[in-house]
Amino acid sequence: MNVPLEESVTLSAKYPSVIDRYFTRRYIQREGKNDTCLLYHSNKICLVTLAKSHAIFEKGSPIRKVNYKVGEKLDRSDNKVLGKKKHGGQCVDEHSILCIVECEDDSVYCIRGGVKGKLIEVNENLIENPQLLFNKAETDGYVAVVLQKLGVECNMSNSVSREEYDKNIDQ
Q1: pTM here?
Q2: Could you read off the pLDDT of 56-102 as tens digits, one per residue?
Q3: d(CA 78, CA 159)
Q4: Pairing verdict, β 97-103 and 63-67
Q5: SS3 state of residue 65
Q6: How far is CA 57 from CA 35, 61, 65, in A?
Q7: How far is residue 37's CA from residue 15's CA, in Å, rounded to a whole number?
Q8: What stretches of 15-161 show up as alpha helix (H) in DSSP?
């Protein structure tokens, strides 16, 4: 069934996306336009993505590679979690590097966690198709999933709301 364009626009305005319905957006603005967006869910899961003001989007250079090997002995893609308590998940914090993004113009960006918790999953689809990070940052192009510690109130003091973020980037 084909839905006419004007009708599909009306439907998308009437029904918010899954991200809009179930996640709270928080933004961390960093030096060098290395901004991240954190999508918090009520179950303490946090998706780490790129903010629309990130330098990658401003430059528009195609992404050559997303590398989860962030240190000589640390490869985030080797992260293996088991069981209900997610044993074996790598501990990350606000400043932990989750991945390194290399663009065709030879620019390199370190994508940081922004949230303290256990690394549950990295998006291995980005290894095969790095353009997802550029084209679908909030959905298929997320960087990683972090589980915040249960019973601990999440610290959002290092981030700003969507309204504050929109105001800051419009200046």
Answers
A1: 0.84
A2: 998 988 999 999 999 999 999 999 999 888 888 999 999 999 999 99
A3: 28
A4: antiparallel
A5: strand
A6: 11, 8, 15
A7: 22
A8: 18-22, 55-59, 125-128, 131-135
